[in-house]
Each structure stands twice: as structure tokens, then as C-alpha cells.
Amino acid sequence: MYIDKRLIFLIIALMLFSAGMSLFSQQGALKAFVITIPGILIAITFHEFAHAFAADKLGDDTPRRQGRLSLNPFTHLDLFGTIMLVFAGFGWGKPVEINPRNFNRDISLNKAEAIVAAAGPIMNFILAILFEIVLCLMIKFVPDLYVVGGDIFATSEMWRVVAQIVMSIISINIGLGVFNLIPLPPLDGSKILSGFLPYNARNWLDSHSQIFELIFIALWIVGILSLIISPLISIINNGITNLFLSMFGLM
Fold it and tell me: Which positions are annotated as active-site residues?
């Protein structure tokens, strides 16, 4: 029996949406939600744009013809993936369609597909680093911001909000990048992995992709993926923050 993945994603999204709505009864939850919006828009937009840009540079004009070589967020947002990102901390944008037959022949088609797949998560990590630098420059030159024991504080409400937005952008980009590197269909990690597998292994993975997608969904529903990913995201986030705070002499 064929199971429409969109239906399953809708069920998960609605479950998370219902759980998330209960948070708004708590003081400050609505503010926290608003603070995450810039990070969500930036992370998804640049992630999908990077896929489109990489494909275009490798010779496939499909994303260009479909208008995906754009930094307009509404070109790239996926409703359910965005809801996931808001309430689960990881999600996805509208997939960029590519036609591997259009790639130039400088490298193999499988390697080209792997490069296109890797472009999205790489972009997210680049953005996280860039905004980490922005945060450090803010702390260094804005008197209202300071660091105590690795924690960032602000004496001004305005700068507190600005710092929270920047930190949210960093965290969401790391979350989206890490999540999409999971080597299970339909995530980018599976395409990256496929590009470096032997021919027989790649064919076996492709022929069983629907099974692996169901495994991915099951692991997500029962919370196993969250148990693995959430600590990893926190470790990377804290590691990058502490590294750059040290580099800027702020710790």
C-alpha cells in the first residue's frame, strides 16, 4: 500500500503545531516565537537558494527556469517544513528540483548531485559562522552587551532582543544544517552519501528509498531522531559560540 508522505508530514506538523500553541499561554512565549521568525526565513531561504545556485553553476538551468535562484523567502518556504522548524527546531524548505542530465560532464553525475545536496547544509553553517561574528562584534563594541561565564547579557531591552534574534539565527541555521545531513531519504545527507557509494550500493539505496523514508518518519515520530539531533545541535552551537568568543577575547 502506498502511503503519501505529505499526509504523514501533515499529521506530524499538526501534532507539533498543537503542542506549540500551548506554549503561548506562557509569559514571553509569543515574543520568543517572533524572535525566531528572522532565523527561519534566513535559514530556509539561503539553504534552498544554495541548492539552486549549485545546480545552476553545474549546468542545470531547471532551478533558474522555476524561479528558485531567488532570495525571496516565499519562493522557498514549505508550510509543513516551516511549522516543523518553528516547533521542533528542525525542518525543511520547498525542495529544489534538478535534472542531473543537464549537468556538465566535468565530474560524474552522482558527484554533481552530491555537491548540489551538500550546498544547502554548507550554506547554513556558513551563515551560522557569519552571524556568530556579527554577535561577537556587537558584544565587543556595544556597551549594553557583555559576557559572563560564556553567557550573553544585556542592560538594554533593545539590544537584548537584537542579540536574541542573532543567536536564534545562529541556532536555527545549525539545526537546519545538522538535520539535513542525516543520511536518510528524503534529506540531503542521503544524496551526499549516495554520491560516494559504489554503483551497486547506490542502486540498492535508491531502490529502497521509500522504506528508508518510512524509517526516517518512524524515528522522528517516536523521538529517537530528536534525542540524537538536539544534543548534537547544542554541542555545535555552544562550541562555535565559545570558539568565537575566545577568538574575539570576550571570555
Answer: 48
